[in-house]
């Protein structure tokens, strides 16, 4: 004879651990994506693109030669 409260608690713990595993996998995936993106952004081959993007707000000229 099983206690229904203990049986329900076991089911809740099993569901909680499955959700915890999913959250852990998602966290690891997002961390991997972020680190990959950060490494890509700091690669020397991307330096000119990043510097040009950083200067964009300060540029007064329009790319197509139009005036504001």
Features:
68 residues, mainly alpha, 0% strand, rod-shaped
Summarize the structure.
With 68 residues, the protein is mainly α. It has helices spanning 4-41, 47-55. The protein is rod-shaped and about 85 Å long.
Structural overview:
It is a single chain. The mean pLDDT is 85. By secondary structure, this protein is mainly α. It has one domain. 0% of the residues are buried. The chain has helices at 4-41, 47-55.
**Cα gyration radius (Å):** 26 Å
Low-confidence stretches: none
**Main beta-sheet strand count, sense and barrel state:** none
Total helices: the number is 2
What general form does the structure show? rod-shaped
| Cα distance spanning the termini | 82 Å
Counting DSSP E segments of at least 2 residues, the number of strands comes to 0
Question: Would you spell out the secondary-structure blueprint of this structure?
Answer:
Blueprint: H1 4-41, H2 47-55
